[in-house]
Amino acid sequence: MTQAELIAALAPSRLPASALDPGWREALALFGLGLLAGLVLALLLRPLLRPRVSLVQRIRATRGQPAQERLLSIARILGHLPPALRDAAYGAAPPPEDPLIERIARRGR
């Protein structure tokens, strides 16, 4: 059986003729569904596409906290406490000034 014979043996389409030739209403509905799908996709990807706050900005945001809490916050941000800040964090040394804390934290990544 050739391909032409196979196609000729197929039953005719059961869809109405208007469904085989889409009009402007169907095109508009497809466009609306595409917009809706794009919106859902954008909402799903939103957490991944959000700009991240830089490390420096997160460290600067700790300004104004008491010294012990600020050092703990910096340790949480960096994942560790730089050795130069450990004595101040445990109260063995006076806490350094804000600019010095930020400089040490940036160096201690």
From TrEMBL:
It comes from the Bacteria. Residues 88-109 are annotated as: Disordered. The chain crosses the membrane at residues 29-49. Keywords: Membrane, Transmembrane, Transmembrane helix. It comes from Paracoccus limosus. Residues 100-109 have a biased composition (Basic and acidic residues). This is Uncharacterized protein.
